[in-house]
Amino acid sequence: MDKPGRTTLSVSDLNRQARQMLERGFGDCWVEGEISGLARPASGHIYFTLKDAKAQLRCAFFRNRAGLSRTPLKDGDRIKVRGRVSIFEPRGDYQLIVDAVQPSGEGELMAAYERLKRQLNAEGVFANARPLPYPPRHLALITSPTGAAIRDVLAVLRARWPMVRVSVFPSPVQGREAPPALIRALALINRQVRTNRQARREDASDPFDAILITRGGGSLEDLWAFNDEHLVRAIFHSSLPVMAAIGHEVDTTLAEFAADVRAPTPSAAAERLVPDRRDLEATLNQQRRRLHQAWRGRFNAESQRLDHLRARLRHPGERLAQQRQHLAGLDRRLQLAMRQRLQRDRQRLDAATRRFTLHDPSRTLRQARERVEQLRQRLEAGQRRKLQQERQNLQGIARELNAVSPLAVLGRGYSILQDDRGQVVRAASQTQPGQTLTARLGEGRLKLEVKRRLKR
Fold first, then answer.
1. Residue 41, preceding peptide bond in cis (omega within 30° of 0)
2. CATH of domain 126-278
């Protein structure tokens, strides 16, 4: 029997209160574990058990949330889920209502992604912004040969602009082998371009003029190959402009940052690369209609103008007679003008002849020659006078110089004595008996020997 004052709860009430307490107490939380017992009923909901080594937790991933998830689920996968703790009241099952799923380790991947992104951005690897040719003549397409992306791209290109030439460079786009294969494809394309540029003529064109790297959507791990540092640098250093369309619009890989242009999806990339021929055809038809309308308008206007001119048209003979009269008047005016011009020219010629006679150059030349002859005679006379004066001055100087010259003194019978060092002997005391002296005479020299010195 119940004790007085104690409330008895029904099973429904207990489950409901327990659910409310759990939902208020925990709120949203992240739980990590391994998937087990995955079930996908026709309702579209996903049910599975999340377990670790010591416990397990039932999880419900309802259709409205599961449809937004990009992470594939299968038994044995280790994942992280975000959700709220609750109880399924009809059975009293304790469970986690899942809102989002990501692979376990995605947090570490995102941290590595952000670190590499900051490093490459600081180095300028994301600075490419070269324009792509529009439309490209020859597109190099790097993608998986079996994926949905290649089918989407080729279908859009064929529908919009079938004139574009596409060369597919098949490569894995997921897993460890994807980055080296993608890099090799880029290197092959650029090598062909460089070889062609070195060997081609000036008017030749490159084998390719744009590169598209693409793949469909997937989880972070599926797209991780496009965050490879070596691949990102290879895209940055490509000699051709690169468009990247990796995954869906919400996915952004480092390869897309390094590319010159990014598209949200493979189909969108194809739409950006080429115009829609149907739009061009519509524009051309519109222009054709406008041209036809303009031609019709011009034709009608010219027809009206022709009718107006036809109404004003007079007989050609009358018009010809008027022109003949006008021509005769012009002829008379021309002849009169020619006579007047000839008379003025004759008057100017007579005046020029008179001026020429007054300024005959032969007379001026004759006067100049006479002037030159007078100046020449004056110059010669002045030179003779100057020469005579200089001769007289020279003779006077020569006489003065001869008067004081030692040679003139020697000519009168004197001599100069010099010792063997060339010193002039001026006194007998400067010599010694037996010493050899040189006597310089007016004409010639003598060698003398001192016998003895005499006293005065």
1. no
2. 3.40.50.261
Mean pLDDT across 447-455:
81
Of all residues in the chain, the percent with pLDDT exceeding 90 is 37
Relative orientation angle of helices 106-122 and 229-236, to the nearest 10 degrees: 30
Per-residue pLDDT tens over the stretch 238-273: 999 999 999 877 678 999 999 999 999 999 999 999
Give CA–CA dist 264/417, Å, rounded: 125
Predicted confidence (pLDDT) per residue in 287-338, tens digit: 988 998 898 888 888 888 888 887 777 677 777 888 888 888 898 999 999 9
> Distance (Å, rounded) from C-alpha 78 to C-alpha 81?
10
Number of Cβ within a 10 Å radius of residue 169: 19
Query: Please, what is the end-to-end C-alpha distance for the chain in angstroms?
Result: 191
Q: Is the pTM of this model over 0.70?
A: no
**Rounded CA gap, 253 and 256, in Å?**
5
Secondary-structure class of domain 11-104 per CATH:
mainly beta
